[in-house]
Amino acid sequence: MTMQAHERSxxxxxxxxxxxxxxxxxxxxxEPPVLSFHDVDMVFRGGVHAVDQVxxxxxxxxxxxxxxxxxxxxxxxLRIASGLQAPTHGSVTAPDDHIAYVFQDPxxxxxxxxLDNVALCSQLRREPKSERLRKAxxxxxxxxxxxxxxxxxxxxxxxxxxxxxxxxxLTLDPRLFLFDEPFGAIxxxxxxxxxxxxxxxxxxxxxxxLFVTHSIAEAVFLSSRVVVMxxxxxxxxxxxxxxxxxxxxxxxxxxxxxxxxxxQIGECLRGGxx
Length: 274
What we know:
The chain is an alpha/beta fold and 274 residues long. 32% of the residues lie in helices and 21% in strands. It folds into 2 domains: 30-98 and 174-274, P-loop containing nucleotide triphosphate hydrolases (Rossmann fold), CATH 3.40.50; 108-173, no CATH class. The strands form 2 sheets. The chain has a 6-stranded mixed sheet with strand order 6-7-8-4-9-10, with helices on both faces. A 4-stranded antiparallel sheet has the order 1-5-2-3, covered by helices on one side.
């Protein structure tokens, strides 16, 4: 899937306030990116300039997090990546299928139990019943919900509902995973547990992922790379390679190197929010 919009003229100057990226990661895989934004702008009706000149690649097996102030266009980039929205300027290249989108809210159907909610995407794709149940059960096992297949959403905790949403997305066998603050409304202990679950799944399948969060610590713990955006209109003002190898354990959060990196990202973020 490639979406293109109006390209800037060669002599057109960049937007005011464009900041040079202070740190550019090196050594990423040479394979073609799974997701690529090129000079993307998004201006909504009414003149709200949400995103300005964003260029960003996500390579196979790379989990990239985006942090930035509220309203800087993080979620807008996810909608553009998924094809739900076309950019005003620039172009986006993404897979035609096998894209999974996990929203802030689990968006489960209250009249379906866990198994049937997880099997929904396969049902909509008209896969045979035996195959969609097999895939749903495998995804349920992967996110640690075995034994809860017959429970309904109102019988689940917030963390379990989010696990169900994650399992449903996994049935798509995604090449590209888009996460829009999926753990933002969950208590800190459950959030850290779900971070660990997501890392375990990522380590096993190594999909390409774009993860939006307000938590710098979450971004560093999960990601191969952290991208920092400025206040609206959102521009990329920093990129930070995360040097910690996978798999990662909760002990990483207590390491001095972890604290140092989150501090650097926080400083960049505060500068961009002014």
